């Protein structure tokens, strides 16, 4: 099979397309013919060699795939050959075939295309766990989402709305602000020095009950000051490249909770919980309450360019790789 390979750590353009032996499904594993693979910012870090989990080289990056099951190993009971599926994995997604444990695989409902399924996975799972598992979001609360228009930010806006929250989205430019508005944000702001004052004005001086923070740097500092008394700020990432310093005084005087989310830990420790969340997210997609805009789709041969596009930013939606020809899927009308 063909795969995009990391032979040495470095920039995305260093990925090599090569022929490698076809993988074989072992006990409890499933072999998937990959139709589409999600391209995520953590993949950029993996290829650069700066991510917290790095396999031995050479290896194929890629943490989420959608495709068709072409073989199953002994001990597999829930999934069968021919099923259309979405799967999570630590690496190995940028390839024509992928082996995944059955515990990490979810069947796709009719009408969900492979590219959208692959693009939905990691970002939406992260946003859901951040809101529900970590922040314990309650209906009627206000959620502040930084990095709106990005993968996790877009999912966070929509999932928070679906859970009954008022959403304040913070975007870095007008293009992403427009996308956040389309996705249902109640209020949209541009990141800048007046962020705290604007959020406080929108919330009658209370601030946001829950903050999803994925930017870092100065945005993190402003977001912390926007958090309401007994609010919960969830640290998702540092897209700006600047790791922030936490001012503990703000945490103390406002009784704040600053929380982290490393969603792959849930994948490994609680696969049943992750499958339940994915099934809920796919349900929202089928209902038209969660959209997954795709900015660009690259063929497998251009995996390096796909990662470079994610690294550069400025996208209006997700990036996916098409690893095999993707047949159109009839969409089920909503309403």
CATH C-level name of the largest domain: Alpha Beta
Percent in strands: 25-35%
Q: Give the CATH architecture of the largest domain.
A: Alpha-Beta Complex
Percent helix among the residues?
25-40%
Can you identify the CATH superfamily of the largest domain? Medium-chain alcohol dehydrogenases, catalytic domain
Count of DSSP strands: 15
CA-atom Rg in angstroms = 20 Å
From the N-terminal CA to the C-terminal CA, the straight-line distance is 42 Å
The parts where pLDDT drops under 50 for at least 5 residues are: 328-335
Order of helices and strands: EEEHEEEEHEHEHEHEHEHEHHEHE
Structural class: alpha/beta
CATH topology of the largest domain: Quinone Oxidoreductase, Chain A, domain 1
Largest sheet: 7 strands, mixed
* Number of structural domains: 2
Helical stretch tally: 10
Overall pLDDT level: 93
Which overall shape is indicated by the principal axes computed on the Cα atoms?
Answer: globular
Would you give an account of this structure?
This protein is of the alpha/beta class and 335 residues long. It has 2 domains: 2-121 and 270-322, Quinone Oxidoreductase, Chain A, domain 1, CATH 3.90.180; 139-261, Medium-chain alcohol dehydrogenases, catalytic domain (Quinone Oxidoreductase, Chain A, domain 1, Alpha-Beta Complex). 32% of the residues lie in helices and 26% in strands. It has 10 helices and 15 strands. The protein has helices at residues 41-48, 114-134, 151-162, 174-182, 195-202, 217-226, 248-253, 263-269, 271-286, 303-312; strands spanning 2-5, 16-19, 29-39, 64-72, 84-88, 97-101, 105-107, 142-146, 166-171, 187-190, 208-213, 227-235, 257-260, 294-299, 318-322. The strands form 3 sheets. Strands 3, 4, 5, 6, 7, 14 and 15 form a 7-stranded mixed β-sheet that branches. Helix 2 crosses helix 3 (151-162) and helix 5 runs parallel beside helix 6. It starts with a strand and ends in a 13-residue tail after the last strand.
